[in-house]
# Entry
Amino acid sequence: MPLLALAAAATLLFSPVRMPPIDECSSDKSFDAFRSELRKTVARRDGSALTAILSKDVLADFGGGEGRKEFARIWKLSRPKSSPIWAELERALRLGCSMAHGSPAIPYLAEGFTSEDDLFDKMVVVEPGATMREQARENAKPIARLDYHVVQVGDVSGQEGWVLAKLADGRRGYIRRDQLRSALDYRAGFQKRGGRWFMTSFVQGD
# Structure
């Protein structure tokens, strides 16, 4: 096979190269209004308002965590102001929305990859202007400025908050872990039931 063809094939194996947030859900005005209220709920850290939009069978954990009571236990909603759910929801809500399976799902990148992608070794740089550096420290020489680029990662535990990553063009370097997001990180699903929107899942992993 000619070298150019091999290069093209290698590029296809690593598609897409970038994954900026896409909102496929705003055309549904009722969901758009629901999502707007959800953002306000997150900003207020309002546990009661969040519980009210959970479906009775809401999935909170692939290990069997199902239902509102279990959801509240997992996310410590008995003390809503200190619950870690608000930071996770805020991050998910600002990264687009997908209609890939007919119902809204956030963030978009949870559905943006193809079935051929290995989701365990790919992440998206979700901090515009993030820097890939030669070494795992802030003052190390910069390699590239990134903007929603898809990168291949090795050890995601990183070195003191850094992850060794590889760009589609072959360049390697370190990126701060808090500037990356996996498609297997927390994502939410929603369904309309009886004329009302509900959150039906908020899970991580596969």
